[in-house]
Amino acid sequence: MAESPFASPYIPNTDDDRRAMLAAVGAASIEELFEDIPAQFRHPELRLPAPLSEMELRAEMTRLAEANFSAGNHPSFLGAGVYNHFCPAVVGPLVTRGEFLTSYTPYQPEVSQGTLQGTYEFQTLTAQLFGMEVSNAGMYDGASSLAEAGLMACRVTKRARIAIVDTVNPHYADAVRAYARPQAIEVYEIAESETELQAETACVIAQYPNFFGYVEDLQRLSGMAHAAGALFCLSCDPTAMAMLKPPGAYGADIATGEGQALGVPMSFGGPYVGIFTCRQEYVRQMPGRIVGRTVDTQGRTGYVLTLQPREQHIRRENATSNICTSTALIGLWAAIYTALMGKRGLRQVAELCYQKAHYAAARIAEIPGYGLPKSGTFFQEFVVTCPKPPTVINVALEADGIIAGLDVSDAIPNGMLVCVTEVNTKEQIDNLVAALERAGQS
Amino acid sequence: MTQQQLTQEAHERRRVLMERSRPGRTGAALPASDVPQQLMPDASLLRNDLELPEVTEGEVVRYFTHLSQLNFSVDTNFYPLGSCTMKYNPRVNEAMAALPGFATAHPQQPERQMQGSLELIHRLQGYLTEVTGLAAVSLTPLAGAHGELAGVLTIRAALEARGQGQRRKMLIPDTAHGTNPASAAMAGFDVVSVPSDANGNISIDALRAEADDGLAGVMFTQPTTLGLFDRNAIEMCRIVHDAGGLVYGDGANMNALLGRVKLGDLGFDVVHMNLHKTFSTPHGGGGPGSGPICVTDELAPYLPGPVVVKRDGGAGNEYASEMPERTIGRMGGYQGNFGVLVRAFTYITLLGGEGMLNISANAVLNANYLLARLRPLFELPFDRLVMHEVVFSAKKRQGASALDVSKRLLDLGFHAPTMYFPLVVAEALMIEPTETESKETLDAFIETLEQIDAEAAADGDFLHGAPYNTPVSRLDEARAARQPQLRWRG
Predict the structure, then answer these.
(1) ipTM surpasses 0.90
(2) Which candidate from B96, B105, B266 shows the least CB-CB separation from A266?
């Protein structure tokens, strides 16, 4: 009974409780409960720091958080798949209500209607935003969502080759390869202008707008895929889809996306939510959770997890995916954000991004030594060529308190991928232009 | 109000967003553009068919608040869902993850701008390798099953590097979570199920029979989903290693082992942990999670990236992120679910090493207390001390199935245990109390199960109709699957 060393605010058992419970169990000590663990391995030294109080913890965490140079207090022109958008203050408090925050996957639908109906809203809103027939309950993130789209296309077509356009986010392309390789699925790159697919190609994967911010000839890519009996998979930015023709209008069979853009904090890379939508006819090949509407024994509307025979807890090694815990809460965040923005607001956000990005591009193009190497329609991101390596420009901008665009000089000499969203004011853009000019000269 | 009016009101309150939408309403005010008007793209590229709700902020708040109230949660109810470790989730975790320096950090910023985040990741890497007794770790997997996939891919890469790429057989006990075989299949392995022996341990004889030069390894949950510390695990590791295979440890049930044993010491080569179970990050109704994997020195070069390393160098530039030398690649876009990592780091920092021991002590005591007190009500397939959870078989003598007992518990304010899992126990009820529940709560839960037992004895049909008091009664799942309605349609 020696063990009650430390008063945790999260553990209610008192010494008296422990004594009474051990008596009920018929054990003399807590130590006895662990006797199945062979003695030579039991109670190894555990070198972890001593406990901290909440006050001490906050000081330490604040030090760490403030050691970051973040978009919270510095204008940022960095995007590349993760976007700094405005989010109304009301979203956080709703999403973090304990009833949403601390519930499990809704295995008992009678006491999980909140989570289930919230997810149904997510499925409705993402399907409408993407102009697609159905959506699942969400995947881990945009990258894994696209990777699962590739696998699903192989299941649907019973082929084992994926063509990926070389303007897809390189991290996403890495994830597609990492998922494909163990299943002996070959992934090959094609240029946007490619006109011939290899035999037995299951799908063409493209990004919309592409990694460099531009809109490609999706009608042509879609036609090429379908002519070869392949599916057309598009990874889409949800903000842009409020303004640009959605993937469904281009005949996409599977459309995925990074839901982070729907007001979710950037949070150094996660948690986010992967959007996954497809044609109704392929729904039984979809990975992940799906919520469906039904009725209870009294005819009242209710929601349940459905089409579960696709899933790992039923089909084990024959499941469409191994996914279990996903990112329901972030899906709820995205759904509430989308509902608040609504039909007009989200379009307005998209147009503000577009307007400001085009203003910024035009101003930067006027700076001596800078240029816009790509032509075509872009949304909120564009590539700038700098007079010096972007790493050098980045350091200079940081000294001016600005987070610069992404260094893409491995793809475009001295290229920087600049992103402008609705949160960037004209003053910030003008300051960026002045800072780039100084950095280019010095 | 009459029953019909009440039903009508409940229906009204649950109308979906598109049914609430009225042209002209909005839930957000955005600024006008402050830049000169730019030329819009060609009309052929634009859409005019965007259908999204038009609702006010107040309506959104009332609607989602109402929806939240239809949920059971750890914050509102005892939630003894086995294998899910539904412990209390400290609110300070949320506050720390929301610190602006973390929440507004972009994952692609240069390392020198992100030293705070990278230091946190580096320290958490150290804590998790210490807890598991393994050499290296990647925090990038985004959930438990994602960690499993990353872990078995790492095994595959290591076998290939040994020139043993032909090894494709992955042994998985019949008690395993469904994610194990699904992950192994995604990684290109052939799954072979291994039975349990009479004591609930993995069958050593069955294991030996499969230990040949086709053996890639075993995926093993310790403690098992029966809530047992598998005493054959050490022998299992030796047999698999001798045959040239590797051992994957599913750490979903790590809560029982904190500070009690290190899986690396037992011979496990890869272990994933569910930070959303053991380390108190909230489950969120189905995520986000985080599934870091810890590995031996041999497997470290194959870990998914990036991982964070500490370099000698100037202050303010010590932490760097890099891809392991022969990495299996990226499992997601960036550094894992960083916001979840912050929460787990917060929890470990608050409780320290002493707190870890306190967790396992009370989690295991609570489970054994339920075992002792509930033994008269249910069959116990394996009668021995348990770790974090206990698996009973619902007694058939009253005609009440595990489903009936579970549904009636909902009526009486308790979330149901995990039911019908593990598959090796008929009518399984898998109960995990966690360390954050009090004896009073456990006693109330026990009394409720006794009441349900009495109800079943008094009226055989009563439980089949449960639940009676929840927002909806049993739902027609067959209809949902037969005629899928997966979104609102006007």
Answers:
(1) yes
(2) B105
